[in-house]
TrEMBL record:
<dbReference type="InterPro" id="IPR018309">
    <property type="entry name" value="Tscrpt_reg_PadR_C"/>
</dbReference>
<feature type="domain" description="Transcription regulator PadR N-terminal">
    <location>
        <begin position="7"/>
        <end position="80"/>
    </location>
</feature>
<feature type="domain" description="Transcription regulator PadR C-terminal">
    <location>
        <begin position="92"/>
        <end position="173"/>
    </location>
</feature>
<dbReference type="Pfam" id="PF10400">
    <property type="entry name" value="Vir_act_alpha_C"/>
</dbReference>
<protein>
    <submittedName>
        <fullName>PadR family transcriptional regulator</fullName>
    </submittedName>
</protein>
<dbReference type="InterPro" id="IPR005149">
    <property type="entry name" value="Tscrpt_reg_PadR_N"/>
</dbReference>
<dbReference type="Pfam" id="PF03551">
    <property type="entry name" value="PadR"/>
</dbReference>
<dbReference type="InterPro" id="IPR036388">
    <property type="entry name" value="WH-like_DNA-bd_sf"/>
</dbReference>
<dbReference type="InterPro" id="IPR036390">
    <property type="entry name" value="WH_DNA-bd_sf"/>
</dbReference>
Length: 185
């Protein structure tokens, strides 16, 4: 149920076409809520049908011209209702964690390279978040919307930092198992 709310958020920040939304998802919202081009366009249709958004009138109607959407008052009301709604955290579902659990049954062979690959992916993501913080949040940007956006970014930085610490621990454990120097069972 959150994709419509992610789209409402993005459109309230700036009226956009579906293509522009897709690009913005790739560069910002997609770091914590991903959606495909098709999902975004499908949801735009639903939101428009529900009366939460509308396509802005075009000065020159042209077949195949991109539509730009804006949020209607009902869409703003819906987003505010959703922000205030209580929602429990979703259970974590991560294939890497399941694979490590399965390695407890079949052995840890082959885990090292995959753990190192994940470590590198999380290092890159952390560097990207830190670059975004440096570029988009210089000292003195203290408007409420900037502070809240920075808070989301800090959540991403904290998660990546967690993954780096945990993956280094996992690599050390798996390395100990592979060379036989780990604790006796």
């Amino acid at each position: 149920m959150s994709l419509p709310h992610a789209i409402l958020t993005a459109l309230l920040e700036k009226p956009s076409s579906g293509l522009e939304l897709t690009r913005r998802f790739d560069k910002s919202i997609g770091y914590f809520w991903s959606a495909t081009h098709q999902q975004i366009y499908r949801e735009l249709g639903r939101l428009e049908e529900a009366g939460l958004i509308r396509a802005l009138p075009s000065e020159v109607p042209v077949r195949g011209q991109k539509k730009e959407y804006e949020v209607l008052p009902a869409g703003g009301t819906e987003l505010a209702r959703w922000v205030a709604e209580s929602q429990d955290p979703k259970p974590m579902r991560d294939p890497l964690l399941l694979r490590i659990r399965a390695a407890g049954v079949v052995g840890p062979q082959g885990l090292g390279p995959e753990l190192r690959r994940h470590l590198e992916l999380h290092r890159r993501q952390l560097a990207q978040y830190e670059a975004i913080e440096e570029k988009d949040f210089p000292p003195g940007r203290d408007a409420v919307e900037d502070r809240l956006r920075r808070l989301v970014l800090h959540g991403g930085i904290a998660l990546e930092t967690f993954w780096l610490t945990w993956l280094e621990e996992a690599l050390a454990e798996v390395g100990d198992m592979a060379d036989g120097s780990g604790p006796a069972a």
